[in-house]
Amino acid sequence: VSDAGDPSVSSVLVGSGAGAYPVLVGEGLVAHLPDLLREYAPAHRYAVVSDDNVAALYGEDAVDRCRRDGMTADLFSFPHGEASKTREQWSILTDRMLAAGLGRDAAMVALGGGVTGDLAGFVAATYLRGIPLVQVPTSMVAMVDASVGGKTGVDVRAGKNLVGAFHAPRVVLADPETTRTLPLEERAQGLAEAVKHGAILDDAYFDRLGEEAGPLMEGDVPATRSAVLRSVQIKARVVSEDERESGLRQILNFGHTLGHAIEAAASWSIGHGSAVAAGMVLEARLGEALGVTEAGTARRVTDTLTRFGLGTVPRGVVDEAAVLGFLGADKKARRGQPRYVLLERVGAVESTRGWSRDVPHAAVVALLAEAFGAETAADGVTT
Amino acid sequence: VSDAGDPSVSSVLVGSGAGAYPVLVGEGLVAHLPDLLREYAPAHRYAVVSDDNVAALYGEDAVDRCRRDGMTADLFSFPHGEASKTREQWSILTDRMLAAGLGRDAAMVALGGGVTGDLAGFVAATYLRGIPLVQVPTSMVAMVDASVGGKTGVDVRAGKNLVGAFHAPRVVLADPETTRTLPLEERAQGLAEAVKHGAILDDAYFDRLGEEAGPLMEGDVPATRSAVLRSVQIKARVVSEDERESGLRQILNFGHTLGHAIEAAASWSIGHGSAVAAGMVLEARLGEALGVTEAGTARRVTDTLTRFGLGTVPRGVVDEAAVLGFLGADKKARRGQPRYVLLERVGAVESTRGWSRDVPHAAVVALLAEAFGAETAADGVTT
After folding, report:
1. Residue tagged active-site, from A170, A225, A230, A253
2. Which pLDDT band holds residue B58 (cuts at 50, 70, 90)?
3. End-to-end Cα spacing for chain B
4. Which of A40, A294, A100, A304 is nearest to A196 (CA)?
């Protein structure tokens, strides 16, 4: 374990239909993987799945450490990047594990970022109808968000995450030391979800993130550990109450309805965090325009995101017609109507009409026209 | 509803981690699909999935009936046969449903035999991370067995059902009238699983099946309804106690360890029911050879199966080396050892070493040598 002696490891319990599981947050967890696997996911064999980058950084070491400890472990790596999050790569990994002879008494370790957690998690969910899964997030977005809550899946041509399953892990091991190796840009992408956690449920955390933006962006480990822990606590509270997103869990989609549409309209040329950040700014404005969200909220959201280099609406990259088009195809739409999570203020979601709601189409059109519209440009306002 | 007035519909409740669901057994259920869907799986839109044969027999009618009743329903059909139970067909159905714009407020109706239930069930399990599923089995094997218990999945090159998920239906609608259109051979294939239900848990049912083999093979509806109901009750009792096959559910694999290996060794040129029937005969002999199974049990199992044209060991079609090879690759193997369910006698499984157990390899080799071996042929005994 790193540092002097025994740094604290925090544990957050997440409720799930398949049984509660802990999220451990602390330095040195990856170094202690063999013991932790034996404790939380005893198995005859282990499949460690990582992308090629993470395989070189941590995967090969992890497998070696398990083997030296007398365990049977194999590394299955795949090309890094969102382009691997497909049914094809899911098939390839499944077939390689079958060829290696892994049976029902095997367990899967998803070691990596959000793509790895989603892809390897979906393999684990469907391999011989499901084998135990351990999530070891190494990116900021996986650590603060994606590794908790049991969602797994892949992208298809029609959209992201449209095929998948809920498959709760046996344990999540979040080791903030692994974020040290992340490029600055990736760190910011993940922190967008942390800002979202503050925006929907914790005003004080929201402010603290803004204050600690410097150390967080520089990769300071104690600051990172503290943010990861608070985000995990918030996410755990939400998904424990509503694992399958029939109620409260919808609030985690704040910023995501417009965020996903923007991401799709940009053909995924901008990061998920950047798209969600823009979505949060726009959905805060939408709430204000509808008289639902406290005035000044959008300003506060923008100011905090700016400290992470986020929150800019990608004018020029996407156009409003494309965003409107993708809104209609949203996975969470009901009767063809997209659903929005609106803030009451920073730290609280408006819920008098349920945890998500439809809004007048005209309000969305007006919002997007103002944000992206050609009229604005024609008026001479900065684009 | 068929016949005079209101024939009885029986309901059997199945426990599941995702909530209990009923299996309804009775004539006229398919004719009343719209009302039943509204009651058990209210949804904005329905996707009815059938193979091309069943689409023509029942699928198109079912969709028309739903539409006349004011519901939004679409038929998605696929080429009949086990060759469609693949990841490729699963992708195709998923993409067609996405292209049709079905959202999370849609529900899936799997109308057909075992392939349809498994394939469409896996689509439902993974579509937008899971949509509600209604199983409407129309084949004998689907009705007495496959539609109950939540197993879904597809075949891959390495073996059958190696990729899949547990996805409990909202309701199972078993209408014995649909079995009238089945060819005799298919009826027998399904009844093999009914004989298995008797063999593992209900001596009296086992005997009754033997006595009613004539009417059952002729497609007599009351006899069919009675067998379907008893099989569903037995299966419901087992899977309610152990949905994920960590304990009691293993007893449903009686006949399947050797049955699957025989099926694979025959390159699936013989039916699943025929393979399982041969497996039951051989596993009863194995139990007798080990002193675990009451003497005479294998004889009784063989006699009953013979009435359905089943229970013959496919000498000449498969050879013992291939069967032994596939045994090592069994999905349910632990530490590389295949597991067997052995009878104590007809109607009772031996369980002093758990619900399944390994057996000495030499005993299996001897059994297969006797059943398939070249030595027997060389000795001049009939092959």
Report:
1. A253
2. very high
3. 51
4. A304
Give A129's contacts in chain B (Cβ within 8 Å).
151, 153, 161, 164-166
A63 half-sphere exposure, CB direction, 13 A CA radius: 22
Q: Could you count the other beta carbons within 10 Å of the beta carbon of residue A241?
A: 11
Q: How far is A279 from chain B (nearest CA, A)?
A: 22
CB contact under 8 A, A126 and B163: yes
Tens digits of residue pLDDT in B216-269 = 999 999 999 999 999 999 999 999 999 998 899 999 999 999 999 999 999 889
pLDDT of residue A374: 57
Contacts of B89 in chain A (CB under 8 A): none
Cβ distance A104 to B157 less than 8 Å, yes or no, reads: no
Q: Which amino acid, one-letter code, is at A83?
A: A
- A193 an active-site residue? yes
- The share of chain B scoring above pLDDT 90, in percent, equals 85
| Cα atoms found within 13 Å of the Cα of residue A362, Cβ hemisphere only | 1
- Candidates B144, B98, B143, B151; CA nearest to B120 is B151
What are the C-alpha distances in Å from A281 to residues A160, A269, B173? 22, 19, 49
Q: What is the mean pLDDT of chain A?
A: 93
Task: Give which of B133, B216, B169 is closest to B23, Cα–Cα.
Answer: B169
* Token code pair at residue A256: 């995501």
Q: Enumerate chain B positions whose Cβ falls within 8 A of a Cβ in A.
A: 17-18, 44, 87, 91, 94-95, 98-99, 101, 103-105, 125-130, 151, 153, 156-159, 161-166, 244, 329, 331-336
